Automatic annotation (TrEMBL):
Lineage: Eukaryota, Fungi, Dikarya, Ascomycota, Pezizomycotina
Family matches, as PANTHER family: RNA N6-ADENOSINE-METHYLTRANSFERASE METTL16, SAM-DEPENDENT METHYLTRANSFERASE
Name the UniProt record assigns to this protein: U6 small nuclear RNA (Adenine-(43)-N(6))-methyltransferase
Organism: Fusarium oxysporum f. sp. cubense
Pfam families: Methyltransf_10 (PF05971)
UniProt keyword Acetylation, yes or no: no
């Protein structure tokens, strides 16, 4: 990547001076640099003056339509093509009568997916990831961008012949036939066709389902906006309308997931309406699915989307991923917390002395596995139950918790404990890694608080006594 564009504060008005030496050739090749690049890519809005300098096709339309750019479907389509070319090194062909996807919104979804997958695996980026894009559209944009941002593979499905034709064309155009499989489906087929494709398991599903229940609802929604959504001007009915609307569509995914269970690590979908997300979270709770995540994607001052993910697995996502909605919503929508700053204690000695005693107490627990990083002052433990509780110790003494080979023991709770050093104090943080019972996490936090406080410079305490 040759550099990153500066952002203008007003996309339609004055822009800062253009850096005429800046060239963009797509993302870096190595994984770490690629992740850093994409994490910062759209932290600010794209500078259209800079885009015009770098792409002649964009410049032609920008010069002509500066004041009404977003009201012209041709301009919007060119913006998508230019961003994909300059920032992702991707080529795109689209028909005039299919949806033109906004790149920034799609990028936000992929960034959230990366956080979801990275925070729910001990293998991090080394494992093979296969995703299913349900309703990939003519652009096939999620698989194209996903393969560029990470070394992932995709199955891309759709029911519309014309969208499938262009999706296959775009995959071939970018030389990704060996990583993206485009599959035709019928409206009555399963949305998650693992058995039909002889696929045992995949890492995630993703979908941007049609928002509306009917054409009437679509038109009514457009009337209520200050200007018509540009995508509505180019999209086909099959892309924007589905029986029952988006909630019914994602509910089909939910019903299939109840049978597939852990054959998919994370089931995810986007929503166009917050009310849909709230309604769907209630459905998750009806089925006693406790491991889920919600987030919102905010682009500009008007566009807002929401997303949900759920899993039957044991790994809990990072709190920033699981509770990504920052605007005011009912607490009932948010999942249980997975991280907490448990306690702050005054620093009265060398941090190494406190860390050694604290670690020693944790090592006394009857853990399946325990690893401590001395440099980072953090440890990861996995347990078969509430091994810190008196009830566990009593049961152990009575022989109720018989010794087993570690490989045979099922992990019921896993955690990461971190010690963070401030100027005058020390903070103990805890991250819930595995498990389904929030009461267990709460109990463990109480144990950590008590343990940390009891290990504050015991020698000083003895001298005072």
């Amino acid at each position: 990547m040759g550099g990153k564009r500066k952002a203008s504060q007003d996309l339609r008005g004055h822009s800062p001076p253009v850096d005429q030496t800046l060239t963009l050739e797509g993302p870096p090749e190595d994984a770490k640099s690629r992740d850093s690049h994409f994490a910062e890519l759209y932290s600010k809005a794209p500078d259209f003056q800079q885009l015009a300098l770098q792409d002649a096709d964009f410049a032609r339309l920008w010069k002509k339509h500066k004041t009404d750019f977003f009201n012209d479907p041709e301009c919007v389509m060119q913006l998508t093509k230019s961003l994909l070319k300059l920032d992702f090194g991707l080529k795109l062909e689209l028909p005039d009568d299919r949806l033109c996807p906004p790149v920034l919104n799609r990028h936000n979804y992929l960034m959230w997916l990366k956080g979801l997958l990275d925070s729910t695996s001990y293998e991090k980026q080394d494992r093979k990831i296969v995703g299913l894009d349900i309703g990939t559209g003519a652009s096939c944009i999620y698989p194209l961008m996903g393969c560029t941002e990470r070394d992932w593979d995709f199955i891309a499905t759709d029911i519309d012949p014309k969208s499938l034709e262009y999706a296959r064309k775009n995959v071939a155009l970018n030389g990704l036939d060996n990583r993206i499989k485009v599959v035709e489906r019928k409206p009555t087929d399963a949305l998650i066709p693992l058995d039909d494709l002889n696929v045992n398991s995949i890492s995630f599903t993703m979908s941007n389902p049609p928002f509306y229940k009917s054409e009437e609802e679509l038109l009514e929604s457009a009337k209520q906006k200050s200007r018509p959504p540009f995508t509505a001007c180019t999209g086909a009915k099959v892309e924007m309308v589905t029986d029952g609307g988006e909630v019914e569509f994602v509910d089909r995914m939910l019903k299939e997931s109840l049978a597939l269970q852990e054959r998919v690590q994370w089931y995810t979908s986007m929503f166009g309406f917050l009310t849909s997300l709230i309604e769907f979270v209630d459905k998750l709770r009806e089925h006693k699915i406790d491991n889920y995540a919600v987030t919102e994607f905010i682009q500009g001052s008007k566009t807002r989307r929401w997303a949900v993910a759920w899993s039957f697995g044991n790994m809990r996502p990072a709190q920033s991923v699981a509770r990504g909605i920052k605007t005011a919503v009912s607490k009932n929508v948010l999942p249980e917390i997975t991280e907490e700053r448990v306690v702050d204690i005054p620093l009265q000695e060398k941090i190494g002395d406190f860390a050694d005693r604290f670690r020693s107490e944790l090592e006394k627990l009857d853990l399946i596995t325990w690893e401590w990083d001395t440099e980072r002052l953090e440890g990861i433990g996995r347990a078969a139950g509430r091994v810190w509780a008196r009830a566990w110790r009593r049961r152990k003494q009575r022989g109720g918790a018989e010794d087993q080979k570690v490989v045979d023991v099922k992990c019921e709770f896993a955690f990461k404990v971190s010690i963070r050093v401030g100027k005058d104090d020390v903070a103990v943080h805890c991250r819930w890694l595995e498990g389904h019972n929030p009461v267990t996490f709460e109990s463990f936090r109480g144990y950590l608080k008590k343990t940390a406080r009891s290990n504050i410079n015991p020698q000083s305490t003895e001298n005072k006594a």
